[in-house]
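Fill in residues.
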């Protein structure tokens, strides 16, 4: 939707000036709309969408390495948080990743972002964010440099999660039910 479409659909909402937080995907036109339509609101970049930024990069690199899209087991293990993997799954994944340094690095950054979102408290998250983006600057992979630029561009919105603990999860659930 365009900003004009959104404004037309929502113009009747009273109390817009009282909205404290708006949680959203990382989309510049939506961010511009929220800033103009809800002037007092702080934007929270949805953590699911931040974590998911590396998924297509991981899958592309895996496909380059394996030559196919067929290996569903490897795909599932790469996308899942290592915290949710069993011992033998984690062992198999790490043995696989040892053979492919670039894929291993991308996976490691994905895991670091997962860990970042387990931090409690805004100031700890702020410090961790600075460290994370600082270290990304030293990566040789263009995908990681691009991710770093995106994270820096959305820094305030990403860190607002740690002040609010808000996500899009409920809305995404409603959307999935409606589509199903």
């Amino acid at each position: 939707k365009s900003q004009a479409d959104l404004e037309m659909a929502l113009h009747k909402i009273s109390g817009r000036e009282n909205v404290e937080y708006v949680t959203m995907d990382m989309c510049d036109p939506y961010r511009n709309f929220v800033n103009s339509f809800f002037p007092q609101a702080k934007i929270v970049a949805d953590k699911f969408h931040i974590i998911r930024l590396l998924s297509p990069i991981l899958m592309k690199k895996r496909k380059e390495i394996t030559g196919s899209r067929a290996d569903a087991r490897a795909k599932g293990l790469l996308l899942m948080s290592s915290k949710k993997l069993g011992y033998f799954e984690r062992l198999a994944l790490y043995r696989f990743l040892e053979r492919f340094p670039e894929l291993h690095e991308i996976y490691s950054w994905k895991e670091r972002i997962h860990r970042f979102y387990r931090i409690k408290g805004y100031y700890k998250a702020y410090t961790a964010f600075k460290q994370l983006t600082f270290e990304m600057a030293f990566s040789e992979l263009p995908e990681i440099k691009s991710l770093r630029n995106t994270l820096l561009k959305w820094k305030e919105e990403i860190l607002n999660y740690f002040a609010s603990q808000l996500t899009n999860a409920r809305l995404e659930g409603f959307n999935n039910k409606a589509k199903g």
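The CA atoms of residues 135 and 148 lie 9 Å apart.
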